[in-house]
């Protein structure tokens, strides 16, 4: 049998391959959300226990001269909390921190990194419960978070025909921020609009409280760690549905518009720029106004249908949209 490279499969193809290999977990009645969702969740008594793991690799997810050690530590926790938020009304409780460190990493860097870990864990009333440290050529940060909830877990699957596709806040900021850093580095004297975009890249915030407020009304939910285009594709695929997405309804910040004035560029960041960590969800039309009252920053950008295809429209005219964002493989 001829072996193929994972670069030809892609990140999500690889996940599907692994998920199919362990398909027998579906037979376990305690499992609420299995491999492939934002977190793995199982029943323990009256509680849902949700566990997530994410990794950040130096020079891929962060550069030491672009962000402070505290910012790197805070971001490492926030992006994992975002995966807990993507399961609905779940509270993050325990964090396990794994580190790969080059031998010449300074003690000052590590202490500052852990201040970032602790500050964010304190913010969410989480306990740093353990971890592991090994030698590595570059800094590797591997975080595992355990969350607990009593209400229903909201999975990626569950969207119904006619449901609206909703999002929190604005999109494209983090992708625009890292574009500025790659282009100008730290030497440039950035204006306040540019600094806002860079802060969204270096200091993301999980939408945990928003998830708590709206989760009971949702039919499916994920976060936008991989970008809006990818996230909508995951929700529709896992739900066995399709969607019409109206790109002129995607919320874009005034800061992004000021820095990148070309509308196509703004849309590229909004659709394909990753690491915004906003919520993307589906909700019945009857609950749409209620959600806006609970979280005014919500926008509705599309509608679920039975086509099993995602189509994009601008001014009600269908557009050809092809993925042009970052690929791990």
Secondary-structure map with pairings?
Blueprint: H1 6-9, H2 11-21, E1 31-33, E2 40-44, E3 47-57, H3 69-85, E4 91-101, H4 107-123, E5 127-135, E6 140-149, E7 164-168, H5 173-184, H6 192-202, H7 208-214, E8 220-223, H8 228-239, E9 242-246, H9 254-259, H10 263-272, E10 279-283, H11 288-294, E11 298-305, E12 310-314, E13 317-319
Parallel strand pairs: 4-5, 9-12
Antiparallel strand pairs: 1-2, 2-3, 3-6, 4-6, 7-10, 7-11, 8-10, 9-11, 12-13
Number of domains: 2
Strand order of the largest sheet: 8-10-7-11-9-12-13
Helix content: 25-40%
The profile of the biggest β sheet is: 7 strands, mixed
Number of strands: 13
- In terms of structural class, how would the helical and strand content be classed? alpha+beta
| N-to-C CA distance | 22 Å
CATH class of the largest domain: Alpha Beta
**Fold-level CATH name of the largest domain:** Phosphoribosyl-aminoimidazole Synthetase, Chain A, domain 2
């Amino acid at each position: 049998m001829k072996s193929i490279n994972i670069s030809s499969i892609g990140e999500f193809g690889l996940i599907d391959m692994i998920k199919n290999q362990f398909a027998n977990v579906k037979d376990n009645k305690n499992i609420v959300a299995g491999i492939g969702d934002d977190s793995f969740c199982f029943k323990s008594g009256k509680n849902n226990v949700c566990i997530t793991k994410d990794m950040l690799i130096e020079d891929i997810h962060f550069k030491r001269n672009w962000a402070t050690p505290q910012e790197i530590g805070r971001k490492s926790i926030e992006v994992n909390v975002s995966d807990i938020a993507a399961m609905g009304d779940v509270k993050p409780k325990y964090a396990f921190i794994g580190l790969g460190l080059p031998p010449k990493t300074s003690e000052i860097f590590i202490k500052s990194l852990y201040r970032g870990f602790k500050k964010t864990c304190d913010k969410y009333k989480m306990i740093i419960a353990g971890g592991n440290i090994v030698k590595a050529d570059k800094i590797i940060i591997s975080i595992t978070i355990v969350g607990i909830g009593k209400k229903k877990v909201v999975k990626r699957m569950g969207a119904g025909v006619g449901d609206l596709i909703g999002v929190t806040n604005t999109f494209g900021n983090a992708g625009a921020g890292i574009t500025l850093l790659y282009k100008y580095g730290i030497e440039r004297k950035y204006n306040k609009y540019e600094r806002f975009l860079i802060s969204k890249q270096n200091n993301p915030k999980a939408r945990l409280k928003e998830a708590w407020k709206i989760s009971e009304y949702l039919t499916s939910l994920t976060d936008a760690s991989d970008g809006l285009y990818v996230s909508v594709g995951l929700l529709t695929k896992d739900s066995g549905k399709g969607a019409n997405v109206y790109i002129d309804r995607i919320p874009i910040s005034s800061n992004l518009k000021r820095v990148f004035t070309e509308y196509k560029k703004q849309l590229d960041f909004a659709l394909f720029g990753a690491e915004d960590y906003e919520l993307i969800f589906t909700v019945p039309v009857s609950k749409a106004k209620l959600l806006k009252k609970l979280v005014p920053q919500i926008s509705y950008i599309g509608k679920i249908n039975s086509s099993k295809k995602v189509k994009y429209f601008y001014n009600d005219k269908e557009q050809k949209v092809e993925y042009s964002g970052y690929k791990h493989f």
